[in-house]
Amino acid sequence: MEVLTELAASLRERDVATLRTVVGELDTRTEISEEVLLNAVKNTWHGVNMLEILLRANSIISKNVILAAGSNERLGDKLIDLMFKKRGEVVKEVESVMIAAVQNQSVEVSMRILTILFEQPGAIVAVTKNVVEAAANNIENGKKGMAILLRYPGTDVAVTEHLVQTIVGCFDGVVVKLLFERWSLEVVFTEKVVKAAAGNTQSGKEVMKVLLEERGSDVVITEEVVKAAAGNRWSGKDVMLLLLEQRWPSGVITEEVVKTVIAKFDKEVVKLLLEQQGSEVVITEEVVKTVITESDKEVVKILLEQRGSDVVITEGVVWTVIAKFQKGAVKEPLEQLYSARVSTEEVVKTLIAEWSEEEEKIVPKQLELGAVVKAAAGNQWSGKDVILLLLEQRRSGGVITEEGVKTVIARFDEEVVKVLLEQQGSDVVITEEVVKAAAGNSRSGKDIMLLLLEQRGSEVVITEEVVKAAAGNQRSGKDVMLLLFERPGQQNESGTGAINVLLGCEFAMVLNQDHMLMTLFSAAVSQERIRLQLYAHQ
User: Fold this and answer.
1) What's the pLDDT tens digit per position in 316-336?
2) Which of 136, 237, 245, 486 has its CA 20 to 30 A from that of 428?
3) What is the rounded CA–CA span in Å between residue 134 and residue 37?
């Protein structure tokens, strides 16, 4: 049998005669294996001659052999014709012949196989699920084979939801039209069928148009249908434009539908959605977030032009903007800002420039600035720029807590603090905690303290806790204390001056004696008094 297998696959003409000799010498009870028959029908040069020889012997034509024969791009029609002529039982395997025909890559061979099939007496031509799927998998020629089958008067189609789904989802308008012409009453319309049409990558618009023409009242546009069109990279836009021109049932334009259209389609589709569906399109916070994160400037422009009054910049929207380009799969925008490695400045600038000239709409009054400041403070790359932009947009006032002021003064430089004091005015209360934050700012402590003394000097009280904060400031604490000593009239908690507070601060003396001694000497404090105070604290 191994010799037969090799001979059946041979492309040499002389091996045809050799095969004839070998088969003639076989015992009539020896059955030709399926493998030998498969090699013969796959033979693109001598397949017909090889098969004819093997059919004279004890051989069984299986479904696999029929499928392989019908798939032969050169000889498929001749092989199938030979099987029908030599083995009448093949007529019982009509489905296999049809599958073989529609999956053949040669249009001519495919058409001839179907013609041969139609001519067979007793052949029942039924388009089944398997036939449709085989045709659908043949991108080049499958639709032509399906068209031939559906046009044949003797064809029977078992119309099921799955079969209709496959046809509208994989074939062109011609095939779908043929289905409706003969089996319209049997076609049941479901959401799955319309979804399949919306997702048809090659002929979505053409097929959807046929559905609307044939059974327009049954075509229900749902959220899932819109999502299917959105996922159709090749013809989804055309499908959506076609659907948007139809009358949609009330309640269909859900928040998810609007978000999907904005995220997946361009300005043309968004504009038509807003124009055609009118008040049915509700601009929610989530919709605005989607516009910011997933659409381009053109879509933003269309939304503002047509529905600008409905666009509200909420706290959630601001957080979305701040976190838009941050890295890391973390849950909260705040956490994202702590580990940010890309600039958020451009995001905020874009929001300010594109959305509205009304500043109070950019950052709402109810937004607690402290949390935003803390987030920006953790962004070492562009935190300063972000907080300056946000502060600039809050000229109309709003909630500014002690925690927010402390964070600005402790984390940023005098430029940011100056803007804070100018923009927030009396809302900024200079408490002990705020002065401590200034004294402890390692980078800009002196400049910030000077700014506080100049602008709000009467409110700056030098307490023991403030001195402790300066003592713990290794980088600029000395400059902070020198600044305070240079202002002898500065108010403090005991009323006798900052030096007495310093000398009475055991914690500061123990923590950083050398630093304090240097400070005191610089302030021209008597050595005797220093020795007495140090002795008292030992």
Assistant:
1) 766 676 555 443 332 333 333
2) 486
3) 23
